[in-house]
Amino acid sequence: MWTEFLVLMKHEFAIIAIIFAIMLLKLGKERSNETMINVVNVLLLLNFVAGLFFNREGMLFNEMFRNNELFVLEKNILNLGTLIISMQSYTWLKTHKHVPEFYMLLLSTLLGMFFMISGGNLLMFYLGLELSTIPLAAVANFDLTKRQSSEAAVKLILSSAFSSGLLLFGISMLYGTTGTLIFSELPAALNGSNLQVFAFVLLLAGFAFKISVVPFHLWTADVYEGAPVAVTSFLSVISKGAVLFVFVSVLYTVFKPMAEAWYNMLFILSILTILIGNLFALRQENFKRFLAFSSIAQVGFILIGITGSSQVGSTSVVYFVLIYIFSNLAAFGVVSLVSALTGKESIGDYKGFYQTNPALTWILTIALFSLAGVPPTAGFFGKFFLLMAGAGKGNWTLIVIAALNMVISFYYYLRIVKAMFMDKNEQPIEKLSMPLMPRLALYACILGVIAVGLVSYVYDHIHALSIKF
Amino acid sequence: MNLSLLIILPLVTAAVLLCCKGLKQVRSVALIGSVLQLGLSVVLLAAYWNERASGNTAQMLFEESYAWFRPLNINYHVGVDGISIAMILLTAFVVVAGVLVSWTMEKLSKEFFFLLIFLSVGAYGFFISLDLFTLFFFLEVAVIPKFLLIGIWGSGKKEYSAMKLALMLMAGSALVFVGLAGLYFNTGTFDIMAMSEMNIATDVQKLFFPFAFIGFGVFTALFPFHTWVPDGHSSAPTAASMFLAGISMKLGGYGCLRVATFLMPDAAHAYSWIIILLATIAIIYGAFATMMQKDLKYINAYSSVSHCGFVLLGIGMLTETAINGAVLQMVSHGLMTALFFAAIGMIYSRTHTRDVEKLGGLLKVTPFISTVFVIAGFASLGLPGLSGFVAEMTIFMGAWQNPDNMYRLATILACASIVVTAVYILRAAGKTVMGPTNDNYSKLTDARWNEKLAAGLLIAGILLIGLAPFLINQLISPGTQNIMTRLAEAIVR
Fold first, then answer.
1. Which of A107-111, A156-160, B350-354 has the least mean pLDDT?
2. How many domains does chain A have?
3. Beta strands B61-69 and A65-67: pairing type?
4. Which whole number is the average pLDDT over A393-398?
5. Candidates A374, A401, A416, partner chain B, best to mutate (most B CBs within 10 A)
6. Domain around A189
7. Which residues in chain B land under pLDDT 50?
8. CA B190 from centroid of its chain's CA atoms
9. Which of A315, A376, A406 comes nearest B141 by C-beta?
10. N or C end of chain B: which has fewer CB within 10 A?
């Protein structure tokens, strides 16, 4: 019995082990930051590799904890993303005073996400969600000397607390009307009564906060701008991805009987999200704020995929999150390198970037093209399939609006490409030397951006697993 | 004949380019790659003739199909008929000429040739695709390199033009996407050949035809979505202008024909009057707008709007001869406009101006370039013996076969525009190459070997079509007949 328990919660135990290892390292004699980061990166790499093998399906603790191949895949995706982020933050962390603390907090967040994904009960889900949010607010404050960083942390924790409140309220009402919190028992107990719809709206609002869907997005840009780049990329990619995984799974399984009700809500929310995200992204000057709004628009596209409420829909969402991790992390990787080495974070500073840093420019360009959905990058496939999933419902207004919004988003991504390649600058960012770790991470991202789309195996694999939603 | 080679070879060339150093290596690799590709296209042509001669009457030859995204029923499916082969040959010709013309591109040469070759991958892939997903994929592949080519190596207000072109073409492909998705959800497949055997409901066709047709129309300068053409063409570097006008605009024409008209014939019948109306406006407006231009590149760009109007006119008439003419016009315009841009590029690189008023008497100083310029002009105004005449003549003949009076009126108006064409071409040619030579230009050097070769190649193509039109007619007519069969079935319903 207890061996099964170990195997099923393998991912979670691995993270816990790493956290304890870091604690022990911290206890021992004084070590340089470089050694520390390298050791953690190796541990994370081992963790990612170990996550790929010996996985089993099953349930524990009266369905509190579930595991199957799909969840394993999602956890592996998150593991990979965390590894890449950790490698990218090398330059920034190297001079930081609290490396072990950073990793302990970051990995606790990841642990929370794993429990959230595997949760088979709304309470378990809620616990995981809180574990994934509170440490994150602490790491958002990790640029200890910057006031903006503290501001970001406060905004993050306050808005998270608010959204948790909404979620809890919704959960309690759901419990009141159905008498159960177990995912597998909920669908049968739902009858679409007004109170249940109201409970669903509250739950939806809670989720919407986490994945920054308009009109619950107001915290996003400020937090993204203030937090250190490593934390921003973690927030925008890993944290968002994890919540999206759970969101899809909750919508497609628990709330399946109420599909009619949530279809219309998501329809309106997705249009609003894409439109507002795009319009605000048009005018941003700070690169991190820009990526914040562009990521809001991306979530809008993901919502369109979710409205399809089909197997294609769920597959496309997981697939897109994977692509989004690679493309967004490639973009953030370059931004984090530039910001760590020169302190420049404005789009205007990137003028003439190509003259001094051609390799970084190409990487950023490919990443932006992938975010914009231009072939042959993976972003094209991701967006195409999301829109196809949305079109499956036959709502052509939605598809036309989304397709035209792709053109708007195209403009602001191209604006940056133009700044890097075409604009003249008296003092472009000087030639930057890339340490090995960030370099490997960027190469991995670019490889992902190119391969995940063209190699259809990835999509087929996710499709085969997505029946488990 | 393995069609995928047409994509693999330029990809390999592009990959090798990335490993090269210095202009000399880069341009030789680009030239070798593009000449091999031209050779491959000719081999394809020969293989096609062989197959047809041995009695193979299949709609598409050399088909290959591999499952790509199985859950969505997306396949990598390629195959060619005569129309695609004509387009592939056109692309190969223009790419070789483009590489030759950019022989002395000093600025970021590696990136330049890489993007140029990468752009051609999009075009080749587009012309051989028989699956709408693959087709759309390659259509978009051919957009982004243009943005960079114009924005980095262009002249004038290049950033503005590059952005305008990229956004308008992306908007076009967004519309195409809606059209394709509509077809997919009503047939369950992306496969063109499979769709062509189905009867798609008329309502569905009427809903999605405009998306597909206007979307592709943006690429081929459908009025009023033509505004990217003048800016884009005139800001682009010579090779990119040649590619844009010569090939990229043909992607749209080919798409209108192969996707919109072929797959949705009922809607094509229903909407043909709108197509004719817009095409006629484009022809006349383009011709008159050209009259007002002083910049040689703007002259050619606006005249492209007018000439591509003929393509759409031919398609909209829905008769076999007219559609044949439309395809002929695409090939002919591709060659002729590429030649025109090449000549303009040669003049500009020597005189550093494209202003008609400032040039003059070039025939005495640079006889070869001036002759090329005049030949391109004559082809453009439809001089018998050159390709433009054959194409336009065929379109008019075909157009007249459509008995509707309004359509005939449109034909007459379009015919009349040729007079305007003659005016602006002759005026531009006269002012540029005739008259007294400006002192500043008395010491210009004539064309170098690479420029001569590029021009010779394109002129050979123009003459071949002009003097032996039956050859290309035989090539494309089986393809048009298939489209006509679809259209005829639609009338019966």
1. B350-354
2. 1
3. unpaired
4. 81
5. A374
6. 2-468
7. none
8. 24
9. A376
10. C
